[in-house]
Each structure stands twice: as C-alpha cells, then as structure tokens.
C-alpha cells in the first residue's frame, strides 16, 4: 500500500486537481452535457475514467519505458492525437440544434471511444506519468500501481461528471440555435488550443 496517509492525501489532491481542471476531456464533456444531457453523456464520462485507469496501469507496468526506449513511437501517437482532436473539434463545431432527445442525428461519444481517446490525450499522459513517477513508492510497487490507478478512477469520475452537469445546466440557456452554435464553436476552439502542449511542448519521454 502507499507508504503513508500523507502521501495518499497528497495523491488524492493531485488526482482531483488534475481531473477537474480544463483539458480535452472536460471540454468535450461540457459540450456533451449541453448537446446531449447527463444521461446520454454517462458512457463518455465512464469511458474516460476506466480508460484512464487502464492507461495508468499500463504506464506503471512498463509502457512508459517503451516510449523512453523508442521516442518516435510517442511522436507518432502525438500526431495521431492531434489529427483526432481536430476531427473532434470539427464535429463539435458543426453540431446541430438541441432536440428533446439529444442533438439531432449527432451521437455522444461512446464508452469505448472515450476510453480509446485517453491514449491520444496529451493531458492524460502527463497525469499518468506524474502519478506513477511521483506518488508510487518502490516498496510494494505492483500493489501501489493498482491502488494508484483505482484511486485515480474513483476521484476522476465525479470530477469529470461535474463538467457534464454544468453543460446540462446550460441547455435551457442555449436553446437558441445562434447561441448554441457560438458555444459549440468556442468549445471546438478550446480543443484546438489544447493542441499546443501536444505539438509544441517537449515530450515527457524525450
């Protein structure tokens, strides 16, 4: 188990702050809450938490070392992530008006899609590497990695859920198609801005 209560408390604080602050996941969840409501966005939020937990386990059990040994692999992942983020930004920007059952013919991100997105999300990589390198004691390493991943998932889900609920609360204010279009374009621009650390900041595996 984690070495001390102080270390566990510090990690929970790290998990909360890194989960609730703005990033690609929370930007998309805010937009999903507006366009699809809370219920239809639940698989998206669950996919983020479970997918990120799997990523933390993978990094803890050696994937991070693979990227350190062969940096071009991570570079390929970064550019694939950039392309996918641009695609998601386009989908959000071109979303139609809100309907009673959701946003027209558009569909919210699925559980598997949200889980897979973590692997091309730059903020998720920073969080996973930070959790493993900073808060995982060497003694009892395997158990500690599992604890870190599980606690992160438990903290992450309600944290990202707040963004869905906030978006859902805005639905009534964005029934006007013009305001909704403006909101979706703003969310798309925020996703594009989030590409800056992905493309121009030195990789953690350099």
Q: Secondary-structure map with pairings?
A:
Layout: H1 5-20, H2 24-69, H3 71-93, H4 111-117, H5 122-135, H6 141-169, H7 177-193, H8 195-200
Word description of this protein:
- The protein is mostly helical and 206 residues long.
- It has one domain (5-200).
- It is 77% helix and 0% strand.
- The protein is built from 8 helices and no strands.
- The chain has helices at residues 5-20, 24-69, 71-93, 111-117, 122-135, 141-169, 177-193, 195-200.
- Helix 2 crosses helix 4, helix 2 runs antiparallel to helix 6 (141-169) and helix 2 runs parallel beside helix 7.
- The longest helix is centred in the first third of the chain and has 46 residues, at 24-69.
- The two termini are 30 Å apart.
- The model has no long low-confidence stretch (mean pLDDT 82).
- It holds the Pfam family LysE.
- It is a multi-pass membrane protein.
- It comes from Pseudomonas urmiensis.
- InterPro entries: LeuE-type (IPR001123).
- GO terms for molecular function: amino acid transmembrane transporter activity.
